[in-house]
Specification:
By secondary structure, the protein is mostly beta strands. Helices cover 9% and strands 50% of the residues. The chain has 2 helices and 14 strands, in the order H-E-E-E-E-E-E-E-E-E-E-E-E-H-E-E.
Length: 286
């Protein structure tokens, strides 16, 4: 069952990527997407997700996203579908939101339950930096409103919730990108850095910030994260290539990237890979 879901998700995103990648109409020219996989070292837990996102008119959302994910192992699995959007309020404030609905299964005891998750984020840009607040909440997994477990044979993950506040300094004349500092509801602090000057302004709930190199250190739990992003198409590969199509038929070029990352802490570590695509003229935005 898990393998079938993973294959179906991969086929879905490849089909969408091929269709949108060949489409030259203006309404579909600003589409990006990602296929991501995660593997925990030493345990059979793994995850795969696929998302697409793009831009549209000013109402109701200036950006949107759709996606699906699957994670777990033989004793527990979770499959989700997600949708969301982003809109601007004023000249220097933006708001994002996503809603996901999923199915949680415990095959060994033949139990299943629904799961809902909502995420919101607000970004405000000031002369001395960018402020971002992110919050999420979950409901489901078979629990009652009093968080009681009606099935003693099932270990529930709990209806989680939390928030995080981040400040990313931005000053004119600084040659190198400055790190961002965030504080979460669990009491942890994170110091993050990206090689892109616009990394945190272009971060979304549904995609990581851009940049060739990304570093993060979370304390006091001493978790270290490292990610490296590279282009899959050499620069200038399309120069001098003969084409029988006109400019209006050829459509916008696509940029493809591969991202590899790892996360390590005292008790566990993970590896992550991702394939991204976006319009080449919007590399920093996507």
């Amino acid at each position: 069952m898990r393998r079938a879901v993973q294959i179906a998700m991969l086929a879905w995103v490849l089909a969408w990527g091929g269709v949108w990648g060949q489409e030259a109409r203006s309404g579909r020219s600003n589409l990006g997407g990602e296929v991501r996989g995660t593997q925990h070292v030493g345990v059979p837990w793994n995850a795969i997700s696929a998302r697409i996102w793009g831009r549209r008119g000013p109402a109701p959302f200036e950006e949107w996203t759709l996606g699906m994910s699957h994670q777990g192992w033989s004793a527990w699995t979770q499959s989700d579908v997600v949708s969301g959007g982003r809109f601007q309020s004023g000249e220097q404030a933006w708001f994002e939101g996503t809603v996901s609905a999923g199915l949680v299964r415990w095959p060994e005891v033949r139990a299943r339950s629904g799961l809902l998750r909502a995420e919101v984020a607000g970004t405000h840009e000031r002369p001395w930096g960018l402020f971002r607040c992110h919050a999420f909440t979950e409901a489901g997994q078979g629990q009652t409103w009093w968080r009681e477990n009606p099935n003693p044979n099932v270990v529930l993950g709990g209806n989680r919730w939390g928030w995080e506040m981040m400040w990313a300094p931005q000053f004119d004349g600084v040659p190198w990108p400055l790190p961002a500092l965030s504080w979460a509801s669990d009491g942890s602090w994170t110091l993050a850095w990206s090689s892109s000057h616009d990394a945190w302004a272009n971060q979304r709930l549904w995609r990581p910030p851009p940049g060739s190199i990304q570093l993060a250190w979370t304390f006091p739990e001493s978790r270290v994260e490292l990610a490296w992003r590279c282009s899959l198409r050499p620069r200038g590969s399309g120069v001098g290539r003969a084409s029988t199509q006109g400019p209006e038929d050829e459509g916008p070029r696509r940029a493809h990237f591969m991202r590899v990352g790892t996360s390590a802490q005292r008790v566990s570590s993970t590896w992550q890979w991702a394939w991204e695509w976006c319009p080449s003229e919007s590399q920093e935005q996507f």
